[in-house]
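Students often ask why inverse folding is considered easier than folding. One informal answer: many sequences map to the same fold, so there is more than one right answer. In these notes we will look at a single instance of the problem. The structure comes first.
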């Protein structure tokens, strides 16, 4: 099992007067970890539920492993969508929930599920409706990882966890992905903790694709220039400026786009430092009101 590929072409999903998704074209390679990023309301959940076959597109095309996922028994059985709520039997014990998922998920690993319960300190006798928000999120992680589905979506599932639980999740996900490669999509608007997991990235903004790129390529397209204000302003003339900060005689300007060798040489000559920009910072700048 190496996961399934996903291709969307001019995909649109409309709810009355709301364009939840508009002209979305992306390709997610099988067996990769993909970051789906966007602010709240950007369309991330709508996109994942549509790929999972739970929603019919308004227009455009969507293929998972070469097949339309909507009401496809084969494709829907290969996709596991985990939302923060967990989509579990809330009034049944966790152990009953795990038995249920063992019956509906053909790749389910019961032994691994037990290990994950111990890792997150979840009692199999507890009912989901008696768990804290963080414990409910952890239960969703248990189900998503133990399902070992060829396509697994984690939709903001880590947001309810405390920091130790979140980092435990990242470590467990990466370790299991190495042992059992499949297509994994992490959806979030909090990026700094998880960006190193991504091979590829999609940034949605108000239902449209703002960026769809290789993760390393995206990081390389951002830069921060710091130095004497006049020199920095001269260097960034004609570039796509995301933000400017003045610190007395010093200025810091964040730009988006490749910097050629000539500009880098002129920056060294002018005593201007060029530094990297995190994916989190790029995301914030690119989806800010000014950029919109």
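Output (designed amino acids):
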């Amino acid at each position: 099992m190496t996961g399934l590929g996903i291709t969307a072409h001019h995909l649109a999903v409309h709810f009355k007067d709301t364009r939840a998704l508009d002209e979305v074209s992306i390709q997610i390679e099988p067996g990769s970890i993909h970051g789906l990023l966007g602010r709240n309301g950007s369309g991330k959940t709508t996109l994942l539920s549509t790929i999972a076959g739970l929603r019919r597109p308004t227009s455009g095309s969507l293929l998972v492993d070469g097949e339309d996922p909507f009401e496809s028994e084969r494709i829907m059985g290969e996709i596991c969508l985990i939302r923060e709520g967990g989509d579990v039997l809330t009034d049944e014990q966790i152990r009953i929930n795990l038995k249920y998922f063992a019956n509906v998920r053909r790749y389910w690993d019961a032994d691994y599920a037990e290990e994950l319960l111990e890792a997150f300190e979840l009692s199999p006798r507890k009912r989901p409706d008696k768990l804290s928000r963080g414990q409910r999120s952890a239960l969703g992680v248990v189900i998503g990882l133990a399902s070992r589905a060829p396509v697994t979506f984690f939709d903001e599932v880590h947001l309810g966890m405390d920091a130790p639980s979140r980092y435990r999740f990242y470590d467990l996900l990466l370790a299991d992905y190495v042992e059992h490669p499949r297509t994994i999509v992490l959806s979030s608007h909090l990026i700094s903790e998880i960006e190193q997991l991504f091979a590829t990235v999609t940034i949605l903004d108000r239902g449209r694709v703002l960026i769809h790129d290789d993760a390393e390529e995206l990081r390389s397209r951002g830069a921060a220039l710091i130095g004497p204000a006049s020199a920095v302003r001269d260097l960034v003339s004609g570039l796509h400026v995301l933000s400017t900060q003045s610190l007395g005689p010093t200025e810091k300007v964040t730009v988006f786009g490749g910097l050629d060798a000539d500009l880098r040489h002129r920056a060294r000559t002018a005593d201007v430092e060029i530094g990297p920009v995190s994916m989190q910072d790029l995301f914030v700048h690119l989806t800010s009101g000014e950029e919109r």
